Fold:
Amino acid sequence: MKNKGVIRMKYSNTKKKIRLTSLLISILMIGSMIIGLDAVPSYASTVRYKGIDASVKTVDLNSVQLSWKPRKGVVKWKVQIKRPIYSNGRDLTMRKPFHTIASLKKKTTKYTVRNLTTNSYYNFRILGYTKRKGKLVLTYRTSDTQLYALTGISQPAFTYGDWYDYYYTPTEIELMVDGHDVGIDPDYLQIYRKNLDISGSAYQKIATIKASQNMYMDTSVEPGKTYRYKVRGYKVVNGKRVYSEFSRTETISAVNQTGTFSLKKISSSDKKHTLEVKLTSDDKYNDDLRLMSNYYNFKLSIENDPHSDHPLQLLSYSTDGMSWTDVNPSKTDITLKGGDSIYLKLKNIDSNKLKISDAAGLYMLIVYGGNYSYLTIPFDGSAKSEYTDLC
Structure:
């Protein structure tokens, strides 16, 4: 069967084949020159080039300046540009070619690119050519992602790392903001907020702060409510405000950052190796607690030792202690809201090592405030959730 799209030509003379191949290569090279594309593709190449120590900075709303260190033997430089197009975090122009915008003399180490579109991202590439046997040879180049810049005002971002790096309570939420490493630094930041507990609510500006302040404490929150924030920067240029793009959003609830929970043993049987407990979220302003029902997330503890290794299997749960729902270890997740209680039936699957009657309490791996935490809680006692780093 013939392959589709392939033209097969038979020549009895081998020299004719060679001439045809050379002709095709020449046509491709001439076509590349006509449409103004550089022969170096923007994706991975089989040719290995030496790097260039280079940097880029935004000069004003429409210009950026490229700088680089000289390289030995370079007789000509080229500056290339590509404007990436992003969709859902993906660069749709990853395989699109760069376009040459300048050819420069060998002693050049700076170049300013002007008349760019404000508030746009650009990628740049610098090529260095040497001479070999009278011909220009591409020897040095920056990588495709080494030089990128934003024209206009730097887009701010919320600077949260781990959940315990910032502060929130039922009456206040701390917001920490910083700028990106590209673009012009803003002078001021505008903070917007909307209440997710109100259907159809719109963003409202709640504060304007100096960009150097970096932190804002929102004290106008309502206990237990969940808010979504975004921020943008601006700078006054020629008497007019020039704004950045809005940051990505951050969602935070006005709840207790650390939850307090109590545990009551309802019944137990060493013979059947079963245990029934009642777990209560002590404060109505506690954040949601999520129990993961897969194996080894529940353990019997001895004297509240979080490292004791006596696993329990979660069999079922109930909201009233009467109607029970069986648990599928691979699918069931259970949510306990602030101020509510839940009943749990568990089975000791390590009964040869520890009897339920000898245990002091439970160890539970949970999700609290959207982050992994653990509870080591005694029977008929209480404890606070503690952050754990699972990495």
